[in-house]
Amino acid sequence: MRNFILAIVFVLPFAIQAQELNCKVSVLSQGIQLSDKRIFTTLETAVREFMNNRKWTNDQFKRDERIECNLTFNITKFTQPDEMSGTLQIQARRPVFNSNYGSLMLNFIDQDIVFRYLEYQPIEFADNAYVSSLSSIIGYYAYVILAMDYDSFSIEGGTPYWQKAQQTVINAQTDGGKGWKGSDIPPRNRFWLTENYLNAVYRPLREANYLYHHMGMDNMYSKMDVAKLSIKDALTKIQTVNKQRPSSYNVQLFFNAKTDELVNIYKQATPTEKEDILKLLNELDPTNSNKYVKINQ
After folding, report:
1. In a domain, 229, yes or no
2. Please, where are the H alpha helices in 102-248?
3. Residue 41 resides in a domain
């Protein structure tokens, strides 16, 4: 069961129980030439209600425990009456103990989504069967968001949700859509995201999630020195994965969310701490080295 440490601070005694996600949904369609774009508005409403009203776990969440997340669809092609394609940005934040700060856990773009949606058509989803491409995509990412959140509160606590996400991948492969198979191009897709997280090689990356958030960020406002050591331990865990799987998709996703936060944390470090952390960050995330120089500014 998810370790609801934050409930002590943030939840009122008589707060109404709520679903797990507080998901904001946007559907962008600037490139689509239609006189009536109402279908995109109804799609936005349907996805938001699906994500927020469905019960995804057996745990009881209070309203203030819901996971803050965002789904931003950018529809670049619409073939009437119902086929859409484009990209989907997924973001999720985790509240930090003793603060009103939300730490960004996920921030990436699925570059190749294709699905069908008829206006006012209900979105239906099943854990053990393929229903539709749209419900598979958003159901998959609901489980990924939950898995990341649960992993941050206990070591490998998100395993049941990684497994549910993986089952969604398997179910969706029957449709033949892009992003669900290991052989799809590009290889950085839904299949590999879950396949890697459930692979023993990536176990240190999941441990890093816990060390970074629960042992690190949750201590940032009371034990800063302990917090920074835990965050460095988390990066060292990621280093072990990086040595076996250089430039892996999952490691890149970690830094997509954490680069700016790491800069802000270590700007306040000692010169020795800065030197050590810069060496580690430039090794693990060389594409953002131009951002890490700000640690010394």
Report:
1. yes
2. 133-153, 159-172, 190-197, 203-210, 224-244
3. no
